[in-house]
Design a protein that fits this description.
single chain, 354 residues, four-stranded antiparallel beta sheet, globular
């Protein structure tokens, strides 16, 4: 089975701690049988495409990236069946340090969030093409971590599967915010308060239950959160450490993903250089049970993603310049004691199935 994936990378960075040797966006095909990779196409005239969103129904790949002076932008590409990219243009936004985006073709909009200024930005989306900015909102708030939570830091935007709403994880304010897509000018709702100092980074929705999994970066915690399908409100029901206590000081979790079977959830622990996998138990409420914690065979794992058939997990290791791959059991959602070869590439931070 041949699987295509897109990889986004750091191409430039102000911090000397980050070796930003990325080549932009790479389109790669992977042979699930042999584990071999083949580079199909690459687009290098782009700065820091750190998050990608693929919309197969319109064959569009979107990237949040940077332009001059740290300002963010959205770039759009068409993708042919053989993996060739065509650059369609970009729109700049008023945000700084863009870090996530979500395209909603059926709704005719695309949203990005920017970390430095804690902002949500909306654009029009017409037949796959990104239009000018038509909405901006800057969050307010702070947290107890003086170095990282001096102001809001929006880190992710996702549409809910329940109701016509989007959620934004705000690391700086220990909050998950909610916006109603049919009433964006109305007051923004603080849908969930996260325990002070945890710093929510990303969330993922459960495919079988009205539940989300909220991953925190500043304190390595994973929260199971129930969702009120009518109001969009959230409530924490369970709390889990993503690494043992003696390693909590160095871990900075980055990504949380559900296995296609709905039987497990995985998180990447950046700087601890591990992935933790939880088995999902479903009774009256969702309960997690840690099933595995393994070395990712790389340094500083950022994004992780499962293959659509659930047979493998890819890990984008920013500081070791590699995408590693571990085999998984598609029925149980748990890792096998088997690895596929790695793909060597500069400073990968995002990996998306195509």
């Amino acid at each position: 089975m041949m699987i295509k994936l897109a990889i986004g990378s750091y191409t430039k960075h102000q911090s000397p701690d980050i070796d930003a040797r990325g080549r932009g966006i790479s389109i790669v095909v992977w042979d699930n049988m042999t584990g071999e990779y083949r580079l199909l196409d690459e687009y290098g005239d782009i700065t820091n495409p750190t998050f990608l969103d693929w919309r197969p129904e319109i064959r569009r790949l979107y990237a949040v990236c940077a332009v001059e002076d740290g300002r963010g932008a959205v770039a759009a590409f068409s993708l042919s069946p053989d993996g060739a990219m065509e650059f369609l243009g970009r729109q700049e936004n008023p945000g700084r340090s863009g870090c996530h985006l979500t395209a909603l073709p059926d709704d005719g909009r695309i949203f990005t969030v920017s970390y430095t200024d804690g902002r949500l930005t909306g654009y029009g989306l017409d037949d796959g093409d990104v239009g000018p900015v038509n909405y901006t909102f800057t969050y307010s708030g702070s947290g107890p971590n003086a170095q990282r939570q001096e102001a809001p830091h929006a880190h992710q935007v996702l549409k809910s599967p329940y109701g016509n709403v989007i959620y934004v994880c705000d690391l700086g304010s220990d909050a998950v915010w909610m916006h109603r897509l049919d009433a964006m000018e109305e007051a923004t709702v603080r849908a969930l308060d996260i325990p002070a100092g945890c710093g929510p980074r990303h969330l993922a929705f459960d495919p079988l239950s009205p539940v989300a999994y909220v991953l925190c970066e500043l304190i390595p915690k994973l929260f199971v959160v129930s969702i009120n399908a009518s109001t969009g409100g959230m409530r924490i029901t369970q709390e889990y450490d993503t690494v043992p206590d003696d390693r909590a000081g160095k871990a900075a979790p980055a990504a949380v993903k559900l296995h296609p079977s709905g039987r497990s959830v995985a998180v990447s622990n950046r700087f601890d250089d591990t992935v933790t996998v939880y088995r999902i138990r479903r009774d009256k409420e969702v309960i997690l049970e840690e099933a595995a914690n393994f070395d990712c065979r790389g340094k500083a794992p950022r994004d992780i993603t499962f293959t659509p058939d659930g047979t493998a997990l890819f890990m984008a290791n920013q500081n070791s310049h590699s995408v590693t791959c571990r085999r998984f059991d598609p029925a149980t959602g748990l890792p096998k004691d088997e690895w596929a070869p790695s793909f060597e590439t500069g400073a990968p931070v995002c990996v998306v199935m195509l």
